[in-house]
Amino acid sequence: PAFVGRDIIEQRLLYYSSRGCKLHLLMGREQWNYLRSLKLPWLSYFAEDNVTLVNEGDIFQSVQLRVRENEFDILFVSGGGTITDWGKWIAGEVGKSGVSLPSIISGSGMFSEKAIFYEGQGEERRKTTYDATPYAEVIIDINFIRCFLTQPLPSSGITAVRANQSGAGDILSIAIALLDWDLADRLSKERIDPVIYQRCQNTLKMLSLYLEDIKECRPVGIVVLAEMLLEGTLLNMRYGSSRPKDGSEHLLAHHMEKYVSP
Fold it and tell me: From the CB of residue 7, how many other CB atoms can be counted at a distance below 10 Å?
């Protein structure tokens, strides 16, 4: 399930801890240091030995080993795309429940059943997608996400504002996906599912209504963006492929990423 609201992370932590669950947190070190400077009260649920911090340049295998050294029932994962996918994979691998705490809404990784890994360095860097166990729970905490809007420029060089706005681009890809689908249908290559097709069109209409709210990272924009990304993911899962949400430009970009480092 997905929980949406303001300052709801602590409520969910209290829910699990009151039931005797051992909690562990996976998060980037830069994000952790920033949150500690804000003195967020829910951080007290995680002692230092219950936190695995990802440093810039860390590889997946080292992070995986550090997480597995700990005993826990629930793995809370906070961050963007890479950490979200790493945490999803690790939780599933060890047979534990994973809970996503998105810090940005730039993609649908927190909802999907796929995990993306970049392997190699420089020109040898390659992108591979694997099946993974979806998160048992996703917590969309509006105030948590918005607290990063005032964060100093992170080492990635991508501000939270820009990252959240890019989530709209992921939804806009539906427009190209539908054109691709129309063409495939006319060529008798792939039949259109009318129910899914209509829901995709409805999602595009919603995007047009809330573009300004998403651009300004207003609370309603964050909620609607998360809802649209979830809808797109569910439509992909229902159809059995990424046909409903990912247009041909996605395939082109993925192909380019095999040869050009992001």
Answer: 13
